[in-house]
Amino acid sequence: MKHFFNIVLVIFFIILLLGIYNIKKYEIIYIKNVTDSAIYFQNPSRTLLKVNCLFDEAMFDIHKYKHHQLKKLTKAEILLLSAKNLLKDKKTYKELVVIIDNVLYKLSKNKIINEEKILKLFHRKLNQVSFLEFKKSIKFFEQYKKDIQQFQLILYTIIAIVLLLSIALFIILYQSNLLKRITILSETDQLTKAYNRRKFFSEVNKYNKDYSIIMFDIDHFKRINDTYGHDKGDYVLKSLIQLIKKHIRKDDMIFRWGGEEFFILFKHMNLIEAKKMAEKLRRIVENNDFDGLRITISLSVVTAKDAQKLEKIIKTLDEGLYEAKKSGRNKVVVKGEI
Questions:
Q1: Strand-by-strand arrangement of the 332-337 sheet
Q2: Number of independent structural domains in the chain
Q3: Which CB contacts under 8 angstroms, 24+ apart, belong to 24-32?
Q4: Which among 115, 144, 166 is the end of a domain?
């Protein structure tokens, strides 16, 4: 569970970092697109500036060559046509185009042109158009600023939510892991890591189908403690339970009843199978070396049909264990079905 908890956290934080990275990437793309649009809106000002220069130079040439010398006025026509070409794409520039067309017409007809009057009219219209373009730009940039602020608000709100969710998930997983550890501690014998009495009653009471129970203890365990000390006795208990766990099924459960006495709960196991299992475990323990020490166990076997008779089942198992001890130890006593 601990490794799973750590893996989930690592995966979650990787996803979190990737999410933040992608959000920031899209923010950069968004800002770039809006900035490009802003640059596009600056183009009208540049266009109008070019048009103004072209028109002023054309009117200067017309004024300079008052007698409309054809060769000199050709340059003025080219300048005016260039200015007109820059203005052809927008309806906003229609009035400026009309003024330019009027000058070109008079040049083609060799008519008198009042340069000062036309310049004043053109500049007035140009200023009006420039002001309209400026207002559009201001409006656009205000909207651009507003959009950026809204986007940033959404962005940081999402980041905040993701961070809060990650913290919440971390707390939930931590609490879940902590609760499981507390539950395990409350149900487990700290020395042998077998389940305790509380877990034994809980499992048997909720399991109403056929099951078998083996009760066993270590023969002459007190002699081991007295001879080799309690540390050796603790080592034997831990090693014994580890050994038995290796030779029973995954769903079978070992419980420490007290001292050197243990129960093994076998779900979906009849009396014959339980007896074979008890004999198997007895031989395995007898032939095992516990750090230079040989031990034996005595076992009592019962198959239960009714979980409500648990008190009677335990009493019968205890009687069977007593019989095994009395008849020489290192034996299996089968007490039948209850």
A1: 253-258, 261-267, 211-218, 297-304, 332-337
A2: 2
A3: 24/155, 27/151, 27/152, 27/155, 30/151, 31/148
A4: 166
Q: Which of 260, 261, 286, 323 is the catalytic position?
A: 260
Q: Which amino acid is at 107?
A: L
pTM exceeds 0.90 for this model: no
260 is catalytic: yes
**How close are the terminal C-alpha atoms of the chain, in Å?**
38
**Residue 177 has which token pair?**
């892991």
Report the SS3 class of residue 208: coil
- Whether residue 188 is contained in a domain is answered as no
Question: What is the pLDDT tens value at each position of the chain, 338 positions in all?
Answer: 556 556 666 666 676 666 666 666 666 666 665 555 555 445 566 778 888 888 888 888 877 776 555 556 678 888 888 888 888 777 778 888 899 899 888 888 878 788 888 889 988 888 888 777 777 766 766 776 677 677 777 777 877 787 787 788 778 877 877 777 887 788 899 899 999 998 998 888 776 667 899 999 999 999 999 999 999 999 999 999 999 999 999 989 999 998 999 999 998 899 999 999 999 999 999 999 998 899 999 999 999 877 667 889 999 999 999 999 999 999 999 998 87
Q: Which amino acid is at 138?
A: I
Q: How far is residue 321's CA from residue 299's CA, in Å, rounded to a whole number?
A: 6
Q: Are 329 and 296 contacting, i.e. CB atoms less than 8 angstroms apart?
A: yes
Query: Cα dist. 62→17, 51, 109, 110 in Å?
Result: 68, 16, 14, 11
CB atoms within 10 A of CB 131: 10
- Give the span between the Cα atoms of 320 and 328, in whole angstroms: 13
Tell me, yes or no, whether 177 lies in a domain: no
* Enclosing domain of residue 221: 197-337
